Amino acid sequence: MHQSTLLAGFLRWLLLIVVLGRVGAEDAPPPSGSGPVRNGSFHWSSTVQEAKAEPMGRFVTFAFGLTNVSDQTASILGTESSCECTVAELPSKPWVFAPGESGTIHVRMNIVGRFGTVTKVVAVETSQGIQQLLVRAKIPVTPAPFNVSPRKMDMEAARKDRQVVFKGGCAACHALPAIGRHGKDLFTKACAICHLAEHRAEMVPDLAALNRPKDAAYWRDMVLHGREGTLMPAFGKEAGGPLEPAQVDSLVEYLLQAYPAAGANAKPGESER
Ligand code: HEC
Ligand code: HEC
């Protein structure tokens, strides 16, 4: 009796090593069966779980419920997982369960830099042997290498400093094309890139739909100073922007004509200089 328990324990470890090795090698499909399981003293709500990651998420979490269904004390001694990216959180070690007591093991998978389907195994060592938990995350594909979109990074950078659009790599699209240009041409390169972009962010307004008086002073102020506390940058040289005074003058002239203060607004592309 004693020896067969030892043998069973040994076989479980052997199976665990095989499974961990296989999953670690190539995100293999999980074994079938994800319903409740009784193993020794513990009843597990499930041993296989799958979850969809949020598009920009860094972690996927899973919760496995367990109950000591025996009439004796039982414990969770520790956990082992197939990669450091996946951690099972225990409130204490050992974690002791009185008869009838329930708890939840939370498993956190770090998915930064991962996409597609990722499967990991956590081996939970109980006072009656090993229970494997299999977690599988479905992670949507994003273009950037670290699971963070370039667009989101741009917006974060601009939130910290709205003038950053004229610096470093941002300048290639947001400042350099404006150099030496005037009027409509300048508007196209400096302003339309955000304001007339087909897929612009929601907070970038349609200039034709602005519900306020739009005189020369208004346009000049917006161009020179932008709007503090928003993503609208200040284009004036004094504020660190790229535009010379003569360029600002030409832009104000164009804006007055393209977005008349009253009456029907012309589409910017339709008005000729
Ligand atoms: C390769 C060209 C390019 C570079 C480089 C670039 N942007 Fe943009 N940016 C765009 C375009 C195009 C848009 C219009 C929205 C769109 O189509 O994504 C835009 C829009 C924006 C917007 C308006 C919000 C939005 O997404 O609609 C902000 C803010 C912005 N960029 C900030 C930055 C910052 C900050 C950097 C540098 C860290 C940067 N951009 C680098 C091309 C660029
Ligand atoms: C990097 C993207 C970006 C560029 C480039 C940009 N804007 Fe904006 N603009 C914004 C955003 C974002 C807002 C919304 C600000 C807010 O939240 O109120 C805005 C708002 C505005 C407003 C409305 C402000 C109000 O009264 O509510 C005007 C006018 C405007 N921009 C003009 C311009 C002009 C002119 C240019 C070119 C010189 C320009 N913008 C270039 C992003 C941009």
Oligomer: single chain
Per CATH, the architecture of the largest domain is Orthogonal Bundle
Mean residue pLDDT: 83
Associated small molecules: heme C
Based on secondary structure, the structural category is alpha+beta
- Count up the helices: 7
Task: Tally the beta strands.
Answer: 10
Unreliable stretches (pLDDT < 50, length at least 5) are: 21-31, 263-267, 269-273
What is the string of helix and strand elements?
Answer: HEEEEEEEEEEHHHHHH
**C-alpha-based Rg, rounded:** 30 Å
Based on Cα principal axes, name the global outline: rod-shaped
CATH topology of the largest domain: Cytochrome Bc1 Complex, Chain D, domain 2
How is this structure best described in words?
It is a single chain. With 273 residues, the chain is α+β, with helices and mostly antiparallel strands. It folds into 2 domains: 9-14 and 28-139, Immunoglobulins (Immunoglobulin-like); 150-270, Cytochrome Bc1 Complex, Chain D, domain 2, CATH 1.10.760. Helices cover 28% and strands 25% of the residues. It has helices spanning 2-26, 150-160, 171-174, 183-190, 192-195, 216-225, 245-258; strands at residues 37-39, 42-44, 48-52, 59-68, 74-81, 86-89, 95-97, 102-110, 116-126, 129-139. The strands form 2 sheets. It has a 5-stranded antiparallel beta sheet with strand order 1-2-4-8-6, with no helix packed on it. The longest helix has 25 residues, at 2-26. Mean pLDDT is 83; it is low at 21-31, 263-267 and 269-273. One heme C (HEC) is lined by residues 151, 154-155, 157-158, 164-165, 169-170, 172-174, 193-194, 197, 199-201, 204, 231. One heme C (HEC) is lined by residues 165, 174, 190-191, 193-195, 203-205, 207, 210, 222-223, 227, 230-233, 235, 251, 255.
